[in-house]
């Protein structure tokens, strides 16, 4: 009969304890239990009555918050003296105390020293009521000005971009759900037709003068030379709620900027642009999905481009690749759906160019970095199987005849990328940020490795299965320290096993595979005592670093 | 007491304004003005209804008057009624109670009341002196014990409390088993039955049984009764019933149900077969079943109409003819020369008068067949300044933008900053030059939204020095030194809940929690009159579109019609069962609409004081009303977030606009009536296509006759736009003469 079951009407009554407490507070000692019960019922009823009347005053006061004055007015209606001295605007919290089996809730009434009040300077006079006019709508279109709420809340932007058929006139989505079952088919059909006809976005892309100015200022600051200004601009992009209208411009700005600067090998600008992407992603009121077609190519370019800077042997473009890779991963996480398949498409792209033998070392590095940010599954299925091949390749570069310095450096970086990932995580856990918040200047292997010497872990904790190795490396900092130890141990093992020092990298990979196999077969650790011995040697950090770099 | 004097005063007015009702009216003025004791007498004398009970009711009134030592009134009433002195000693049961518990819907029945009684009810508005204690309506704590007992007397007969759930269950089973087409109709019986059975249990001190009964069956009731159920649930003792308004409402007004004859027969037969007297008694005593011939209504049809505190309006109540047409505009020659610029400059001057809604003036040169007679109620004569203003208005109207689904209005939003949640009411002048705000701190503030500043008239001494013959005397009387963008009016002693500009922009009305309505001069920015009479918070007040009259309504459930030059009301419209929350004049000034917390809207005839329409369908207190400019339709918005559209002439609901999620505080039709704007607590302004809404309704004779209408489910298609504000509830809307939409609200950061 009732359309919906409502929460049960409950008859809440004040506890008789309260009555007793109140009676005591006014000096009535022994109150019969029965009279307490009667009192509490009566009091509860009256309180409800007053609350009902007070609600009336709230409604007519056009508020959604009941105030003390509402209660006063309600009391006045009932010819009851209002409560004086409860004019507090703020919420007055109840204090709680218990003792002697009693629980008490009470206001804390502070004793106020009059002289204090007199001596304190007067508070500022509150501002007077004033009237301000703005355009809520101009011929049916709401202008994007600060006085209006952000034109499209994120949810709506999301529906618009993911389900354009459902996208209706702004603010109408809630009614959509109210569609009644009766006649729904015809209404729905109509609605669809409507929707198709209205597919054309009703918001214009003209920017107001203020917005144009803002856009100019922001973009200039973002790529300008003043770091302070840039920080401010990025902060604004990351927090301002009204950027929805400008989003297409920003997106184009970034994509064009990357296109130009990649050609010119302007590393600094590329970094700035990537930071803009990051800021846009961080903005809680923006939903970027509609602009990914411009942003993703830009980001991917910054990951895998053959050359990002003028002097690839000196400049740290690796950091940019790392940073962009993390951005990529973040956008995959946020926007990848079954329809756009961003993650799988990106993964495919990376893998394809990685597998290509002719790929430059820089691109190779980017691909691996990009893949490794995409999560444990990707690492497990795509990177691990390729480790041997990659190891061989690195070995070929480092062992073989010196082709070019650039290749050498590239191979080194790929190697370090494959090897010391965990250490990176360690250094990062020290910074305390998540993947995205890492600074562009990532500290590389040696310094991180020093962490190890300060904490001589027990190699007996080797046991975590090797498959878990990568997973943990990307997940938790503390366990990765152990992995670092283990990693270093492998190096040492290779030393003690008198492997050629030039093949350390390769052997390390092999070791990993060995470990994999070992755990897979469930055998014990033949090297365990050896490892223990090594760890007890407590080599100085520099030495270990040297060993790895050797 | 100044009662007799009042009577004379009123009679003078009558002469003054040459009303048609002098015969009836003045005769009764005597009768009533001599009963100065209390408003109760007014309420009382209005209570008689059907002619069968007249005699008894009259006796009840007499007895009441006697008890209150109003011997004079007793004598007069007795003389009028031709009763002998001993007649009034006969027992009085029902009607005395009726009077004490809030004035029952008299005026609804006014149509068929006999001549004497109708005269009484016409005259009553003149009666109460301002100082009268508002005993009538509010059923305050001070209500005499005996009266309550009388009210409750019907509950004294009791059955076995244990059987109540059984009875109810039996009925429930029966109704669930009947044919589908009857089930929805018969289900209407559940709620009133439930309430009365519960109250009977409580009254007879079966507290536990009552509680169990409530818990068992309250979940079955329609969700829109939740508010009332909550009140009921808190009432668990006989003592609580004393002075509880809701309870008295249930008792004193019969719950009205519309049921088809077939369904009713079914129910009757069932109850008689089962010898279920308990339920049958309740149905007979406390319910009014309005039986109609024809198809039983569907569930959705019933749901659309139900929800009010006392059931649906009786069909009879909406039978009276309503002249909803507009009055003919006086013919004023519009100078067609190019004075536009000049006119522009003069626009802001606060001395021209302009009745509202005359945008249609140019079209309706002929008398509308549905319009009331031009002189049906006396209207103030047009002054020169009014004519000037009308000309201005027509000029503006020619520049009006034609709105439609493809041509939406621009919205200018006036935000009140730093209002600290204190803004309670807003109004614009018709020419949109001034804006006034009522605040919780008892102040009223007036702003000029044009560059023209607000100036006060010079003091009397200074005025005497002015050359009265000079051309710019109107300029000269203003004191330049006082020019400012806003003025504050002090005078109220409680939050200001209602505010209204006079059409000529010379006056401002404000109603407040302190029970008064104040009239302010916008020339001197001082208070001119404090109209007392409500004694309880006055929730709303509104000027007539022609000025001079105004209406106010408040917590005492009585709407009062006033004229600015009388300190006592001309009419009192009693009948609502809960607070009157909003008031509005019909564009032709002959009718007044009131919305109430009892979830009904009533339309009152200003001339006769009768209630001519009872419109039910809202599920929450109504907070906003709007008439279409042609006077034919009305829109209403309530706390339930729905806007309902009504055909005033037929008294029918013709549309339902769903979309808001919170109380609708503002409604306004565009100047041509194509678009309805609604503003709500949910911080949105929505625009609706009303032309389409009214077109979609098919009105054949049957639906018109029975009032059973199928509402098209088309809110979605009618919604033209939604505009979110930045945490600013919209509490007022106004279309300028050129169809620009102005909205106002306080920014709550």
From TrEMBL, chain A:
It holds the Pfam family TAF6_C. It is found in: Nucleus. One of its GO terms (biological process) is RNA polymerase II preinitiation complex assembly. SUPFAM superfamilies: Histone-fold (SSF47113). Its main location: nucleus. PANTHER family: TRANSCRIPTION INITIATION FACTOR TFIID SUBUNIT 6. GO terms for cellular component: SAGA complex; SLIK (SAGA-like) complex; transcription factor TFIID complex. Residues 12-78 form the TATA box binding protein associated factor (TAF) histone-like fold domain. One of its GO terms (molecular function) is transcription coactivator activity. The gene is TAF6. This is Transcription initiation factor TFIID subunit 6. Keywords: Nucleus, Transcription, Transcription regulation. InterPro entries: Histone-fold, TAF6, TAF6_C, TAF6_C_sf, TAF_TATA-bd_Histone-like_dom. Residues 189-203 have a biased composition (Basic and acidic residues). Residues 142-203 are annotated as: Disordered.
UniProtKB/TrEMBL annotation, chain B:
It is found in: Nucleus. The keyword Repeat applies. Residues 30-52 have a biased composition (Low complexity). It holds the Pfam family TFIID_NTD2. GO terms for cellular component: transcription factor TFIID complex. Residues 334-345 have a biased composition (Acidic residues). Its main location: nucleus. Residues 1-54, 85-110, 334-387 are annotated as: Disordered. Residues 12-21, 357-368 have a biased composition (Basic and acidic residues). One of its GO terms (biological process) is transcription initiation at RNA polymerase II promoter. The keyword Transcription applies. InterPro entries: LisH, TFIID_NTD2, WD40_repeat_CS, WD40_rpt. Residues 160-287 form the TFIID subunit TAF5 NTD2 domain. Keywords: Nucleus, Repeat, Transcription, Transcription regulation, WD repeat. Belongs to the WD repeat TAF5 family. This is Transcription initiation factor TFIID subunit 5. It comes from Oncorhynchus tshawytscha (Chinook salmon).
């Amino acid at each position: 009969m009732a359309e919906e079951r409502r929460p049960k009407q409950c008859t809440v009554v004040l506890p008789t304890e309260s009555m007793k407490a109140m009676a005591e507070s006014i000096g009535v000692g022994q109150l019969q239990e029965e009279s307490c019960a009667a009192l509490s019922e009566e009091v509860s009823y009256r309180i409800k009555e007053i609350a009902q009347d007070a609600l009336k005053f709230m409604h007519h006061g056009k508020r959604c918050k009941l105030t003390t004055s509402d209660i006063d007015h309600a009391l006045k209606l009932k010819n009851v003296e209002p409560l004086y001295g409860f004019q507090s605007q703020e919420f007055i919290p109840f204090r709680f105390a218990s003792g002697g089996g009693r629980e008490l809730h009470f206001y804390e009434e502070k004793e106020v020293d009059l002289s204090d009040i007199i001596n304190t300077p007067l508070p500022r006079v509150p501002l007077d009521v004033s009237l301000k006019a703005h355009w809520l709508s101009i011929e049916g279109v709401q202008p994007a000005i600060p006085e209006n709420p952000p034109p499209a809340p994120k949810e709506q932007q999301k529906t618009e971009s993911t389900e354009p058929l459902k996208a209706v006139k702004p603010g109408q989505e809630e009614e959509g759900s109210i569609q009644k079952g009766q006649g729904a088919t015809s209404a729905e059909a109509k609605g669809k037709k409507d929707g198709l006809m209205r597919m054309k976005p009703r918001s214009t892309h003209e920017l107001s003068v203020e917005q144009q100015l803002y856009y100019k200022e922001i973009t200039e600051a973002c790529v300008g030379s003043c770091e302070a200004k840039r920080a401010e601009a990025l902060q604004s992009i990351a927090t301002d709620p009204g950027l929805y209208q400008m989003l297409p411009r920003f997106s184009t700005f970034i994509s064009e900027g990357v296109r130009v600067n990649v050609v010119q090998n302007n590393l600094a600008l590329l970094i700035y642009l990537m930071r803009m992407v990051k800021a846009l992603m961080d903005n809680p009121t923006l939903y970027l999905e509609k602009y990914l077609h411009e942003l993703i190519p830009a980001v991917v370019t910054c990951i895998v481009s053959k050359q990002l800077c003028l002097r690839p042997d000196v400049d740290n473009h690796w950091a940019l690749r790392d940073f962009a890779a993390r951005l990529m991963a973040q956008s995959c996480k946020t926007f990848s759906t079954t329809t756009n398949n961003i993650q799988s498409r990106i993964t495919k792209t990376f893998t394809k160019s990685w597998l290509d033998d002719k790929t430059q070392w820089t691109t190779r590095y980017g691909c691996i970095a990009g893949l490794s940010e995409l999560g444990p599954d990707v690492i497990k299925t795509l990177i691990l199987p390729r480790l041997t091949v990659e190891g061989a390749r690195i070995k070929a570069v480092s062992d073989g005849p010196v082709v070019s310095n650039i290749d050498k450096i590239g191979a080194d970086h790929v190697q370090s990328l494959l090897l010391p990932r965990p250490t990176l995580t360690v250094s990062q856990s020290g910074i305390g940020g998540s993947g995205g918040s890492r600074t562009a200047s990532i500290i590389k292997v040696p310094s991180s490795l020093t962490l190890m010497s300060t904490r001589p872990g027990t190699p007996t904790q080797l046991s975590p299965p090797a498959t878990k190795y990568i997973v943990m490396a990307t997940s938790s900092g503390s366990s990765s320290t152990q992995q670092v130890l283990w990693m270093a141990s492998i190096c040492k093992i290779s030393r003690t096993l008198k492997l050629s020092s030039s093949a350390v990298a390769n052997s390390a990979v092999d070791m990993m595979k060995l470990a994999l196999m070992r755990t897979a077969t469930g055998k014990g650790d033949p090297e365990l005592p050896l490892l223990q011995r090594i760890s007890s040697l407590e080599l100085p950090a520099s030495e270990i670093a040297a060993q790895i770099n050797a | 007491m100044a009662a007799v004097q009042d009577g004379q005063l009123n009679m003078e007015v009558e002469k003054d304004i040459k009303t048609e009702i002098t015969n009836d009216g003045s005769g009764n003025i005597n009768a009533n003005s001599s009963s100065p004791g209390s408003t109760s007498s007014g309420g009382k004398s209005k209570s008689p209804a059907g002619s069968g009970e007249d005699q008894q009711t009259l006796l009840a009134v007499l007895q009441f008057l006697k008890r209150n030592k109003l011997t004079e009134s007793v004598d007069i009433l007795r003389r009028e009624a031709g009763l002998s002195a001993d007649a009034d000693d006969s027992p009085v049961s029902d009607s005395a109670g009726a009077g004490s518990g809030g004035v029952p819907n008299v005026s609804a029945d006014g149509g068929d009341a006999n001549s004497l009684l109708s005269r009484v009810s016409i005259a009553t508005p003149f009666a109460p002196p301002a100082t009268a204690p508002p005993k009538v309506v509010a059923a305050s704590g001070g209500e005499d014990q005996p009266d309550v007992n009388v009210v409750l007397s019907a509950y004294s007969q009791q059955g076995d409390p244990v059987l109540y759930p059984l009875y109810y269950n039996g009925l429930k089973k029966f109704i669930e088993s009947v044919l589908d087409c009857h089930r929805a109709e018969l289900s209407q019986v559940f709620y009133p039955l439930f309430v009365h059975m519960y109250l009977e249990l409580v009254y007879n001190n079966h507290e536990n049984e009552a509680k169990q009964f409530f818990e068992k069956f309250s979940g079955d009731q329609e969700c829109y009764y939740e508010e009332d159920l909550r009140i009921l649930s808190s009432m668990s003792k006989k003592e609580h019933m004393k002075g509880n308004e809701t309870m008295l409402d249930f008792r004193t007004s019969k719950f009205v149900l519309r049921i088809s004859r077939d369904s009713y027969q079914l129910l009757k037969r069932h109850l008689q077969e089962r010898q279920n007297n308990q339920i049958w008694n309740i149905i007979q005593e406390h319910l009014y079943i309005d039986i109609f011939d024809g198809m039983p209504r569907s569930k959705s049809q019933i749901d659309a109409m139900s929800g009010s505190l006392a059931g649906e309006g009786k069909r009879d109540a909406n039978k009276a003819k309503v002249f909803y047409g507009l009055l003919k505009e006086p013919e004023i020659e519009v100078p067609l020369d190019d004075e536009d610029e000049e006119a522009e400059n003069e626009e802001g001057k606060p001395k021209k008068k302009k009745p509202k809604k005359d945008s249609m003036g140019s079209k309706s040169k002929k008398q509308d067949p549905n319009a009331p007679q031009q002189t049906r109620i006396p209207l103030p004569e047009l002054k020169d300044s009014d004519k000037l203003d009308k000309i201005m208005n027509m000029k503006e109207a020619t520049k009006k933008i034609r709105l439609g689904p493809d041509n939406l209005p621009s919205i200018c939003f006036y935000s009140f900053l730093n209002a600290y949640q204190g803004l309670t009411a807003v109004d614009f002048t018709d020419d949109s030059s001034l804006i006034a705000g009522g605040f919780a701190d008892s102040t009223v503030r007036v702003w000029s939204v044009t560059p023209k500043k607000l100036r006060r008239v010079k003091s009397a001494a200074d005025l005497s020095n002015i050359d009265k013959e000079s051309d710019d005397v109107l300029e000269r009387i203003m004191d330049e030194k006082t020019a400012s963008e806003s003025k504050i009016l002090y005078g109220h002693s409680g939050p200001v809940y209602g505010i209204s500009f006079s059409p000529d922009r010379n006056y401002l009305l404000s109603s407040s929690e302190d029970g008064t309505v104040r009239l302010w001069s916008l020339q001197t920015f001082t208070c001119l009159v404090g109209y007392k009479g409500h004694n309880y918070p006055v929730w709303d007040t509104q000027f007539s579109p022609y000025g001079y009259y105004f209406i106010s309504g408040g917590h005492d459930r009585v709407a009062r019609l006033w004229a600015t030059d009388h300190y006592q009301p001309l009419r009192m419209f009693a009948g609502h069962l809960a607070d009157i929350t909003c008031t509005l004049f019909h564009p032709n000034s002959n009718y007044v609409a009131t919305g109430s917390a009892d979830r009904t809207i009533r339309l009152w005839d200003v001339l006769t004081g009768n209630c001519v329409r009872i419109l039910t369908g809202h599920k929450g207190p109504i907070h906003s009303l709007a008439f279409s400019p042609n006077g034919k339709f009305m829109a209403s918005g309530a706390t339930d977030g729905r806007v309902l559209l009504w055909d005033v002439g037929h008294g029918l609901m013709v549309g339902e606009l769903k979309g808001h999620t919170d109380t609708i505080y503002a409604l306004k039709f565009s100047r041509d009536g194509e678009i309805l704007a609604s503003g709500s607590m949910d911080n949105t302004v929505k625009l609706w296509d009303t032309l389409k809404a009214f077109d979609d309704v098919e009105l054949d004779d049957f639906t018109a006759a029975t009032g059973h209408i199928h509402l098209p489910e088309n809110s979605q298609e009618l919604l033209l736009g939604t505009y979110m504000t930045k945490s600013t509830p919209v509490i007022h809307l106004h279309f300028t003469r050129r169809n620009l939409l102005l909205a106002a609200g306080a920014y709550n950061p």
